[in-house]
Design a protein that fits this description.
The protein has 209 residues and is mainly beta. It is built from 2 helices and 12 strands; from the N terminus they run αβαβββββββββββ. The chain is globular, with a radius of gyration of 16 Å.
């Protein structure tokens, strides 16, 4: 049976493609580094059995306005109401709400193959609409993006209340990355009519050796 996109899906993918293009064009030309510089880390997921160290993605706690932290969004916006665990701080007060068909693209950060996972907190605000997560990387040879190869596809039924996601793999989605530290962005979009909230987006900078 042939794959047929519903008109709403066509509009969503068109919006996603346009925002990815804007995100890539918005990354200044920089030379690739042998590896990314160290980032301050914390252990935000210890109460869920994960003692790993993570760094907060740029603007990933949504405490600053989206425009000032570098997020690009369509049908998505900063919302009063933090994830209830307050892993980033007891005074944190905001999260990001993405409406049905909406897209949010993170600020650029240095990404290399030593960063295996992303984790964040999420809450489906209904019973429909999957939250999809992708990675877009700008290498010295040009952009490497995965608009249709998802890092994660989270069904609404799996996140009916605030909870951390599992460790969502990044490096196996970047097999063509050049082995250097390159600018990258995380892409979140909702496929379907439902809305989602996300908060406290963290990246695992684990290094071998």
């Amino acid at each position: 049976m042939p794959f047929v996109l519903h008109p709403r899906g066509v509009r969503r993918l068109g919006r996603l493609t346009a925002l990815l293009a804007a995100a890539v064009l918005g990354v200044p030309a920089v030379a690739s580094a042998a590896s990314c510089p160290p980032q301050p880390t914390t252990t935000p997921f210890t109460q869920w059995g994960d003692a790993g160290s993570y760094f907060l993605a740029p603007g990933g706690n949504f405490e600053a306005p989206l425009w000032s932290s570098g997020w690009i969004a369509a049908n998505a916006g900063r919302t009063l109401g933090n994830e209830p665990f307050h892993v980033g701080g007891s005074s944190d007060s905001y999260s990001l709400t993405i409406g049905g068909g909406g897209v949010a693209v993170s600020p650029a950060f240095c990404f290399d193959e030593s960063m295996p996972y992303v984790r964040f907190f999420a809450h489906a605000l209904g019973t429909a609409g999957n939250l999809q997560v992708r990675l877009a990387v700008l290498t010295a040879a040009g952009p490497v993006s995965f608009p249709f190869d998802r890092v994660a596809d989270l069904p609404a039924a799996s996140m009916g209340s605030w909870a951390p996601t599992g460790q969502l793999p990044l490096t196996n989605r970047a097999a063509t990355v050049d082995g250097q530290g390159d600018p990258a962005r995380l892409v979140f979009d909702v496929a379907g009519p439902g809305s989602w909230q996300i908060d406290d987006v963290y990246v695992d900078p684990y290094r071998m050796g």
